[in-house]
């Protein structure tokens, strides 16, 4: 699903690179945590996979497509295959839950019929079918993140990226979000979660890739957050 | 596609409501610049008509000296008649010239004429040309001919024995040229200002919708899907400006112009529906081009897709 070979990203010449010679393979259907301190390169990693950035060196293949050689007009079609969830939810405040999710389908040209059937379905999946007509500011943080996950997943992408999805949430709510992501993973979707939520990583016992100073310092199945303290 | 079109229209309308001040500024500047384009095009057409009508009236008048022998006058007339560029020749005798002068200019005071010691007016030949543009060629030929010198009113200064409307036509051409240059300069300046206004309006529209744009990029909306509402907004603004300009020009053409030509019956000014349609098409096309250019310019700078 994801293949990174010797990838480096240098933002400013002569400064330490954000990512330094990373090689990572992620198979279809895996659930992977990407952990590391702030500035370790987690966000750069995610943005490279979305082709918001191009690597300075190395090769990245996502869903069978080489991102370094991809024409820029094709990028939108790549992103339709990647669901994306962020710490700050990125919901539109003037649209209801339903409209927020419908918007994501509308702008990639899905028909009204598809929208009317898929939006309620994905809202049931995330457990928000009761709050379809609520606006984001009427929802709790956990609910807003569920809406955001529903929007990322409504198009059934084979890959779901989450950048600090629980960064703004309390531990109990975070647990709910993680189990939702886990459920999505069970449908066959590859899930990559960048986080520094120690308890979460330790309790889930999934594959962990640890970044430090832009380098992959650890990659273990059924890992823990680590960083011996 | 039908869904998309209504979506784009909706987005453009929402955006207009959100920052109508900037949009209005863009519309007004486009309106003014297109109005000026229309006025200069229209007045160019009208001036062309005026010039043409003057050209029609361009004839050469050759003054003959008193007592010129009839056979020599006939010889000149025959020679001119043989010229391929000449249409007609009309002989006016001294008596006829005086009569005409009396009727035309001295109706109120015939005593002035009656008190003259003799008839001071020369006999003349009026030469009409097939093509008024040949006026100076024919004049040169006449001056060079011997039969003209034999009968000319003032053989010492042949140019004084000839009268023709070349100067008027040339003056009119100069005036039209100046008007054209001035209006081009004004239109260019206004076009730049309208581009700046459209650019600003679109920039604000992009800024107002930056969250939507970020999400659209995230979920994989195609680049053109993201761009089109802004392009449409630019085109819509300039179309509104163009329609306002066409409206104003119609009022000018169909209400003010007939009044003007009533006042100035000597000038043949009128605008046909065909001319007006031509100007309208130019304005709409120019407006759309300007709107697209302004929007593209703004997107290049402010919309990263």
What does this structure look like?
The complex is a heterodimer of chains A (229) and B (305). Chain A is α/β, with parallel strands linked by helices and 229 residues long. Chain A is built from 7 helices and 10 strands. In chain A, 32% of the residues lie in helices and 25% in strands. In chain A, helix 3 (97-106) crosses helix 4 and helix 3 (97-106) runs parallel beside helix 5 (141-153). The mean pLDDT of chain A is 92. In chain B, helix 2 packs antiparallel against helix 11. Chain B has 11 helices and 4 strands. Chain B is an alpha+beta fold and 305 residues long. The longest helix of chain B has 43 residues, at 166-208. Helix content of chain B is 73%, strand content 7%. Chain A binds chain B through residues 50, 72-73, 76-82, 84, 90, 92, 103-104, 106-109, 111-112, 151, 155, and chain B through 3-4, 7, 211-212, 214-223, 225-226.
Write a concise keyword list for the protein shown above.
heterodimer, A: 229 residues, alpha/beta, six-stranded mixed beta sheet, globular, B: 305 residues, alpha+beta, 4 strands, 73% helix
Which structural class should the secondary elements of chain A be placed in? Answer: alpha/beta
Distance between the termini of chain A: 33 Å
**N-to-C order of helices and strands of chain B:** HHEHEHHEHHEHHHH
Number-wise, the strands of chain A total 10
Rg of chain B, Cα atoms, Å: 32 Å
Record field, number of beta strands of chain B: 4
Distance N terminus to C terminus of chain B?
21 Å
- For the CA atoms, what is the radius of gyration of chain A? 18 Å
Global mean pLDDT of chain A: 92
Strand content bin of chain A:
15-25%
